[in-house]
């Protein structure tokens, strides 16, 4: 609830920017360490969301003039991990517990699930194969 929306375009931009940040945290962004040293010192190895792979984002604002204006971006960041994890679970039946949810981590989680259940009924989507 953003309360009263004073600047609709700015509010939309804030929410959409935070959704993009949340997608990065959920899918690609990770600082890797080796022996106490940061391995990802530049954007050639620290992958952030690219506009070329972002979905179309439609933001619907509900103006509530009865309430004072509120911050609106942070909820969009924090929900993306759960949204993506639930989508992965719905698609392949595996509950992801670690971010980012890279294809390699999804494959490994599926292998562990199959080994634990003794089943190989679920297959990977083509994009993860």
UniProtKB/TrEMBL annotation:
Residues 1-55 form the Aldehyde oxidase/xanthine dehydrogenase second molybdopterin binding domain. SUPFAM superfamilies: Molybdenum cofactor-binding domain. One of its GO terms (molecular function) is oxidoreductase activity. Pfam families: MoCoBD_2. This is Aldehyde oxidase/xanthine dehydrogenase second molybdopterin binding domain-containing protein. The lineage of its organism: unclassified sequences, metagenomes, ecological metagenomes.
